[in-house]
Batch of 2 targets.
Target 1
Amino acid sequence: MSQTDRSKPLPTLSFEFFPPRENDGVAKLLDGSVAKLAAFDPDYCSVTYGAGGSTRQGTQDLVEALLAAQINSVPHLSIGGSTDAALLELVEHYRNIGVTKILCLRGDQPSGDASRPVYAKDLVERLQQHYPKHFELAVAAYPEVHPDASCAAKDMIHFSAKVSAGASSAITQYFYNPEAYGFFLDRCAKAGLSIPVTAGIMPITNVEALQRFSAKAGADIPRWLAKSMATYMSDEKGLIDYGVEVVTKLCERLLEMGAPGLHFYTLNRWGASSRICRNLGFLER
Ligand code: FAD
């Protein structure tokens, strides 16, 4: 889609933020990156939930601040580290302050935990049981297959179980190979799944950080991209310009392939995400 192609409806747009650690971090984030990206009138901004519930209060604070600023806010939530009562207390609070959509995750499996393994499906089931049809429940999807899964077919069975439990939309892990997304949609269709699968988009702004995240998340950096990024090892501006070009083309391809929305992993920064959105024809207020 280009600036001039205004005939097609725009896909949904969302931006992901993490809760800042500093005391005045929320106010700074709202005045800075959130304000810049909210200008694109996104469908919502989501707020991550630290592994094992480590940012429970921070997530809640940022969700509240976004709602107070009239920005639709979607909390991420994982079971990890919380008792059932504590989890439901948080969800009850979200319901009372007007949250309507929650991204349900397993989170990272605590290492050395001998108890029964938990999965995101368990959280979806629990929320459907306590709040039947109240929240729109979204889940994570992995076009390149979740790193813990032994094969794509088993991963699809587990993804499908989340949908059967009541998830009505999904957001993908980021990827740079659009064909992975296409094959994932094919696998969904073969499994009889038709929920919208929004593409997760990671702008490229820092090679080392991207390599670190990707190793942890099991996201592939294709050789052509790794070698191209290496050209800009000591040229930050060059890397960002190149990254904006590559990720804009990726988004254009994903939209051609039928992606219903784009979800930007902003890492609390606005520069690259806003340039990509502008390139794609999203208008600022
Ligand atoms: P699940 O859907 O439970 O799947 C995890 C693994 O278990 C997969 O390999 C799956 O195939 C397998 N599995 C599922 N069910 C079964 C079963 N019954 N038997 C055997 N295997 C099974 N992490 C955070 O900590 N905080 C966040 O805020 C956060 N936000 C994210 C946002 C997005 C859009 C995405 C894509 C990921 C996010 N993550 C976050 C990362 C996520 O928590 C990890 O990828 C985690 O390892 C898996 O979470 P899940 O919800 O996909 O798990």
Target 2
Amino acid sequence: MKPSRLFQCQACGYQASGWLGRCPNCGEWDSFKEKKDKLEEFNFDLPEPKTLSQVDFQEEPRFSSGFSEFDRVLGGGVVKGSVVLVGGEPGIGKSTLLLQVASNLASQNKKVFYVSGEESPPQITMRAKRLNRSLPEVYLLCETNAQVALESVKENQPEVVIVDSIQSLYFPEIPSLPGSPNQLREATLKIVEIAKKEGITFFLIGQVTKEGQLAGPKVIEHLVDTVLYFESSLSDLHRVIRSVKNRFGSTDEVGIFEMGPAGLREVENPTSHFVSQSLERKGAAVAPVMEGSRTFLLELQALTNRTFFPNPRRLSLGIDLNRLLLILAILEKNVSLRLFEYDVYLSTAGGLRLNDPAADLAVLVSVFSSLKDIALPGEMIFLGEIGLGGELRPVPFINLRLREAAKLGFKSVIMPKYDKIEAEKPIKLIFKKNIKEVLGLLLENG
Ligand code: TYD
Ligand code: MG
């Protein structure tokens, strides 16, 4: 029997037994090519498998990016010869971050290439000016032809190459459009090959796009060593960079930056951004919260006013409104308070967006403190998730949270009972079973 021919769409991989003008799967035009898959006669030397302990092992050489927040997410610095994908929505600050990294590296006398297919040299220079950076050792290459750009890299042998963005690079001989999955994969494969062969580190900027012609960075995540995402999950001003894949480190690290008029600044101590310094703590309670593996303290502020309308207002900034409603319902059930007579406004300091249920108790206590007009002890923090019955529930990473609070000089913490807590803390632990006990204690003190 004559073997049947196989055609494959170069854009999505769809296979058909005959040539098609348009792919029925992805809708791409003129993307079918015949697939030849004759197996060669097998004539290889079989490799000798080794046990792990027989493998010669060396830590990869690393160097600093000049930002400790960025180094942390990379697992302790930039690994020589690695390929790092930095994804994020347009306008989040990817180009800004990597231009600053480029400038940091250049000032360590590293030869850095900045390959841009998105902006012209004057635009990039203008941004650098805005960042107060002179970039003597950063070589700009405004090029969209992948072959030209990569040949130039091989020729000039920089130590670090930044590609802004990977979607803008394309190979003219590949039939797919620039930015299509095929182009993206091809360019990334070539880059990985060069990185490993020549020991050059690549940072690839990947635009995250909603729908449309451009393929998102997901398409190449499996090809690169490290995948980082840059987002504004913490607040509008803050930028969080987190790792979702890292062959050279753990993925639960996050780095925190703040966007300002002169670019990104590292936020090494997030607590200072999210706790106000006022001594008066009426209607404000502090909770130790987590973002990735970072702990910091966050102040929650509540304001309650008598309402003159049948429907009281509930407003929440930074915390899910449903969570606030739930906590108010629990408060009302457990103490004889007529909450429906009050408007309740809640906000997190610094505009932080919070998902950590560990702050439940602090939310409740701040509302209570505002309602009763009692001041909370300034050096006390509140920790714990609240169950519907008003019981306090433990939250993970308790030791990390307590360590951070102690480091910042807080003296006591009200929290649910834990069996195992690392001893020897300068911070006093006050265990409470439920919110009744907590509020009772506050009334005694207040
Ligand atoms: P950019 O790095 O161009 O984002 P991306 O490459 O992820 O698309 O940053 C764009 C935004 O950052 C832009 O809206 C303006 C802001 N920005 C500042 O606030 N301060 C600065 O110093 C710079 C350079 C940019
Ligand atoms: Mg950009």
